């Protein structure tokens, strides 16, 4: 890049300069959240090992200074922006700041493997996120450095087309292989078929009657997208934040959000990206540098 004499105008979009000061973190709080037993966080059960390089847009979110702990998945949607679930970062945000130990690793099929790790310099959480009922569960994380794009790292395109029933989708994650099971270090993936919104609302209401102790929310099909495979196959704790990808186009249509832990025979629920186009387009950090001579 040649910069000639004259004034250089650098245009930085939201998030580029937001650098939180690292602070000491409260590990107990984090581990408290890691108690997935009664958490409705999205979670892959009954999947298969993902071929290496099959999900080049996927990042692993981790925290911890001495021992790294896996938190969630996320998807690279620009060289400065990762899309994830709001509930993935909600508990990492204290006294107005994200924990200084939050990192994102790209380019590895192991969450603790040899990928490239990035610091997070800021976030945007959807203003209508409601943690109690997991609604509008989406957030963006920004990096200060451009995410490098070697062979196995690449942003994913988002499709804002409305997704109906019977669409084949794929999800990958380091989530548990069963409620209470450990997080696998190798990335797993599974293909899931979308179901009709009304059916999802009905099936989730029935599941809530069947398992009242889980106290899970209802679904709202205009902002949430559901899949169902079969009992014993689906998402599980730790898959949250990862992208739901339409197999025919390879574009992201959803974010893993929540479900009945895990693969109990109820639908898995995702953020429906087609409902959030303006918020995503407004907040995505393209960080274009304009040089004026
Ligand atoms: C960052 O995340 C926290 C926790 O979810 C949220 O309270 C805060 O509003 C977010 N910041 C922005 C700019 O959205």
UniProtKB/TrEMBL annotation:
Tell me which UniProt keywords the record has, alphabetically: Disulfide bond, Hydrolase, Protease, Serine protease, Signal
Q: Where does the signal sequence lie? A: 1-18
Q: Which InterPro entries match?
A: Peptidase_S1, Peptidase_S1_PA, Peptidase_S1_PA_chymotrypsin, Peptidase_S1A, Trypsin_dom, TRYPSIN_HIS, TRYPSIN_SER
| Protein name listed in UniProt | Peptidase S1 domain-containing protein
- Quote the PROSITE patterns the UniProt record gives: PROKAR_LIPOPROTEIN, TRYPSIN_DOM, TRYPSIN_HIS, TRYPSIN_SER
Under the heading Pfam families, the entry gives: Trypsin (PF00089)
PANTHER family, per the entry: AT26814P-RELATED, POLYSERASE-RELATED
Domain (Peptidase S1): give its ranges. 44-285
Question: Its family?
Answer: Belongs to the peptidase S1 family.
């Amino acid at each position: 890049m040649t910069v000639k004499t004259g004034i250089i105008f650098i245009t930085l979009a939201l998030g580029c300069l937001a650098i939180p000061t690292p602070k000491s973190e409260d590990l107990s709080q984090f581990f408290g959240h890691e108690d997935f037993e009664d958490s409705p966080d999205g979670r892959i059960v009954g999947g298969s090992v993902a071929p290496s390089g099959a999900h080049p847009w996927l990042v692993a979110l981790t925290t911890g200074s001495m021992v790294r702990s896996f938190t969630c998945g996320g998807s690279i949607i620009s060289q400065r922006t990762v899309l994830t679930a709001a509930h993935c970062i909600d508990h990492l945000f204290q006294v107005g700041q994200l924990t200084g130990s939050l990192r994102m690793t790209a380019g590895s099929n192991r969450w603790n493997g040899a990928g490239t790790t990035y610091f997070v310099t800021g976030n945007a959480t959807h203003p209508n996120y409601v943690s109690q009922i997991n609604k509008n569960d989406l957030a963006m994380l920004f990096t200060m450095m451009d995410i490098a794009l070697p062979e196995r790292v690449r942003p994913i395109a988002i499709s804002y087309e409305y997704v109906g029933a019977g669409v084949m989708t794929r999800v990958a994650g380091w989530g548990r292989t069963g409620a209470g099971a450990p997080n696998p270090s190798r990335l797993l993936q599974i293909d899931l078929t979308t179901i009709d919104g009304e059916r999802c609302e009905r099936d989730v209401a029935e599941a809530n009657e069947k398992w009242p102790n889980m106290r899970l929310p209802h679904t709202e099909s205009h902002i949430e997208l559901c899949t169902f495979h079969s009992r014993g196959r689906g998402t599980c704790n730790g898959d949250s934040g990862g992208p739901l990808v339409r197999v025919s186009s390879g574009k992201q249509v959803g974010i893993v959000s929540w479900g009945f832990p895990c693969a109990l025979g109820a639908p898995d629920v995702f953020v429906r990206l087609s409902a959030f186009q303006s918020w995503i387009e407004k907040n995505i950090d393209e960080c274009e540098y304009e040089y004026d001579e």
